[in-house]
TrEMBL record:
Keywords: Lyase, Magnesium, Metal-binding
Entry annotated with the keyword Metal-binding: yes
Cofactor(s) in the UniProt record: a divalent metal cation; Mg(2+)
GO MF annotation: an example: metal ion binding
Protein name (Swiss-Prot/TrEMBL): 4-hydroxy-4-methyl-2-oxoglutarate aldolase
The organism's place on the tree of life at top rank: Eukaryota
Keyword Transferase: no
């Protein structure tokens, strides 16, 4: 009973905070995104050159926001989410956190509390090469989340890992400052901000 009271308070809190879905070149929040299919169609030369990459279609969709974009921040961890929390506690300013959890399916790296923290701090989205938990809470939040699966087991709290490093997720290297575009069709990584 106590947990359900907390959950509805968390859901209520989540619904009251504004989330930035993307930012323009000047860093100004932008609530719209261009469909990934349109972006790939309009930027075929960049797909051919490797400047625009499509992540492998292995990610499940969580959260109320199904389409989001923004500059990328990276974290590399393994079954430990302390650094994930540290990053999400900073101002998101429409950025997207990419968490390379090594593809582990043994525990969750993001749950309802971290989704709420990200939401309230203005993060556009989170992509996890690993698991999430508290799926109902995440789905009640106005944030976009992608992950391989869900797992109810929480992660370790040893503060191991690295921030702001290149990561290998979904079949491609991803670097801090590149741009991520996500919708129901998939996830794109671009070396620069795209327009259609």
């Amino acid at each position: 009973m106590e947990k359900s009271k907390l959950s509805s308070i968390e859901f209520h809190f989540c619904q009251k905070v504004k989330v930035y879905v993307g930012v323009d070149a000047g860093g100004v929040p932008n609530m719209t995104t261009v469909p990934t299919a349109d972006l790939t169609d309009a930027n075929t030369a960049h797909v051919g050159s490797g400047d625009l990459r499509v992540l492998h279609p292995v990610f499940r969709v969580y959260g109320q926001i199904t389409s989001f974009s923004g500059p990328i921040v990276t974290v590399k961890v393994f079954e430990d989410n302390v650094l994930v929390r540290e990053v999400l506690e900073t101002k998101g300013e429409g950025r997207v956190l990419v968490v390379d959890g090594g593809g582990s399916l043994r525990c969750a790296l993001v749950g309802g509390n971290l989704a709420q923290i990200a939401y309230s701090n203005g993060w556009a989205g989170i992509v996890v090469n690993g698991c999430v938990r508290d799926v109902d809470e995440i789905n009640a939040c106005g944030i976009g989340v992608r992950a391989l699966a869900s797992n109810p087991l929480k992660s370790n709290k040893k503060r191991t890992g690295e921030k702001n490093v290149p990561v290998y997720v979904g079949g491609t290297f991803i670097r801090e400052g590149e741009w991520l575009y996500a919708d129901n069709d998939g996830i794109l990584i671009s070396r620069f901000e795209l327009s259609n």
